[in-house]
Fold this protein.
Amino acid sequence: MKLYTSPGACSLADHIALQWTGAPYEAQIVSRDERKQDWYRALNPAGAVPVLTEGDWVLTQNSAILNYIVDKFPEAKLGGDGTPESRAEVNRWLAFLNADVHPTFHALFGTEAYLGPEAEAKAKEQAKRALHGYFKRADAQLAGKDWLTGSRSVADPYLFVVTQWAKKTGVDLAGMDNLAAFDAHMAADPGVQAALKAEGLL
């Protein structure tokens, strides 16, 4: 099993999840330039990370890979406590992160530059306001919990990744003490540290 990942990208969530399984895998770090090359486009025509391969089988899309890790390694218990309700809760928060939070960062990563300086600045400000609201929801969910859904799951590394993005792009996280505690808890986790080190982030 091989994971293609870029440092600090959303693929870091998959990298952490694989670390948590304890199973053998290979992580290949790919740069933006490498992701434009033909060999990588053959794996993922979008030129994006993550990509997971097992033999000749290729899987793309972050949420699909995270759910595959849940199913492939049930002993790691990264998909809830085994009940349909807890699995649905994990997928609820995974969908929130993948469909709501993650795309909102696009404006902060420069994808609106074609609009011109004034419109781009407005788009960034709107994105920061929206993200502030999303992170407040995550902070409220974390009240009294070490993990987003109560037990460790594949939603946690995804939240950790987007929290790092928020800190780097100036999203206001002031007063979100539950989120801050979660972030510190994750940063101290050996599996998280191993993934960060492998990606040159630690």
User: Anything to note?
Assistant: Strands lie at 2-5, 26-29, 51-54, 57-60. Residues 2-76+192-198 form a domain with the Glutaredoxin fold (CATH 3.40.30.10).
